[in-house]
Amino acid sequence: MLPTELIDELMRFRAERDWEQFHTPRNLAISLSLEASEVLELFQWRDPRGEAMQEVLPRLRDEIADVAVYLTYLCRDLDIDLEQAVRSKMEQNRQKYPVALSKGSARNTPN
Amino acid sequence: MLPTELIDELMRFRAERDWEQFHTPRNLAISLSLEASEVLELFQWRDPRGEAMQEVLPRLRDEIADVAVYLTYLCRDLDIDLEQAVRSKMEQNRQKYPVALSKGSARNTPN
Amino acid sequence: MLPTELIDELMRFRAERDWEQFHTPRNLAISLSLEASEVLELFQWRDPRGEAMQEVLPRLRDEIADVAVYLTYLCRDLDIDLEQAVRSKMEQNRQKYPVALSKGSARNTPN
Amino acid sequence: MLPTELIDELMRFRAERDWEQFHTPRNLAISLSLEASEVLELFQWRDPRGEAMQEVLPRLRDEIADVAVYLTYLCRDLDIDLEQAVRSKMEQNRQKYPVALSKGSARNTPN
C-alpha cells in the first residue's frame, strides 16, 4: 500500500511511543471507522466540486492519511497483503457485477 | 498506495461499467465510511486473537480491500498523493505527540 | 425516548438472553455506530424521494429501530435522561447558531 | 421518542433557521452516522467504567442527544412511528434469537 520504508516509519512511530499495546485489531478497526467518518464529515452538508473542493482538499488530505495509517497498521499486524486482497476482491466484483448487467446502474454498484 | 497497474485496473473496472457518474467525492466518502464500518462489524461483539482471529481473516481481507478501493478512487479523482499525505500527517503527529509526553499513554494517541 | 413499558420490554429481552455481559457502554457505542451506518447504507448510491423513498421505508424503519434500541440501552445503563440531554443540547445550539447568523446557511448547521 | 412538545421545538428550531432545505433524508442519514461516530469516539482508546465513565458522561450526553435529534428529524420527515418500528423489530428479534439458542451467546446477538 505504502512504500516499505514509510510503513517502517509508521511502525517506528508507534514503537517509540509504546502504543502497540493499544493497537489491538479491534481498536484499530474502531479508529479506521472513526477516521473514515472524519473524511465524510467534510461532506456533511455539501457536495463540493471545483473551487469549493479545493477549499476542502487540505483537510481531506489529512483525514485520508489517517485512514491510510490505520489501514496500514491493521494489514501489518494481521499479515494482510493489501495488494493481493484488492486483486481478489476485484475478481469477486467482476463476477458479481458483469459489465453487461451493471453498466450505468447504481443499483449494481458494490456495497 | 497500490501499484499503478492495479490502480489502472480499478479505473478500468469503473469506466467499463460507466460508474464514474456515481463516484462523486461525496459518494466515495460515504462508501469509504460504510466499508470501514463493515470492517468494524467483524469486531462488533468480540475482540478476537490467535485462532479466533484466523477465522475472521478471510472476511476481514475482503472488507479491508473495499476500504482500500474507495480510498484509491478518492485519491485518484482528487489528485491526492497518498504517500505525501501520510508523510505530512506523520510530521504533524510527531509535533502533536512527542515521545516524551506520549509514551505509553492512550490519551495522547491520535484521534 | 420510548414508553417506559417498551423500555422495560427491551431490558427483559436482554436479560432473558443473558446479554448484559456483552452490553458494555463501549460495545453499545460500537453497535450504535454500526446500526447508524446501516441506515446510511440505504442511501449509499441514491437520494430517494417520493415513490423511491416509499420503497426504502420498510428497511429504513427496521434500521432506525436498531439505532433507537441501542440508544435506549446506552441511556438506561448510564442513567442518561435523553429528554433532558436533548433540551440542554438545543440550548447550546441556540447559542451557537443564532437565527440571525444561521438562517439558510448550511455552513452554520450543527456538526 | 421524545415528548411531542419537544419534537415541535426541534421542528421550530429548524424552521426558524430555514434548514429544512438541507435536511433531505440522505443528509439526515449522513449526520446520524456522523453523530453516532462521535459517541463512539469517546470510547476510541478506552473502555471506561465507574469513575472513568463519570468523566465521559457530560460529553456522552451531548453526543447521544445529537443522535436522538437526527433520529427525530428522520422519523418526523418520513412519518416513521419509532415506537411501532421498535416493537416490530423486537418481534423479529424474538424469532431470530430464541432464548433457548441465544442465551449467553454473543454470536447470536443482533448485528
UniProtKB/TrEMBL annotation, chains A, B, C, D:
Region (Disordered): 90-111
Listed GO biological process terms: nucleoside triphosphate catabolic process
SUPFAM superfamilies, A to Z: all-alpha NTP pyrophosphatases
InterPro entries listed in its UniProt record: dCTP_Pyrophosphatase (IPR052555), DCTPP (IPR025984)
Sample GO molecular function, one term: nucleoside triphosphate diphosphatase activity
One Pfam match: MazG-like
Gene3D superfamilies assigned to the protein according to its UniProt record, in alphabetical order: MazG-like
Listed name of the protein: Nucleotide pyrophosphohydrolase
Species per Swiss-Prot/TrEMBL record: Candidatus Thiothrix singaporensis
Source taxonomy: Bacteria, Pseudomonadati, Pseudomonadota, Gammaproteobacteria, Thiotrichales
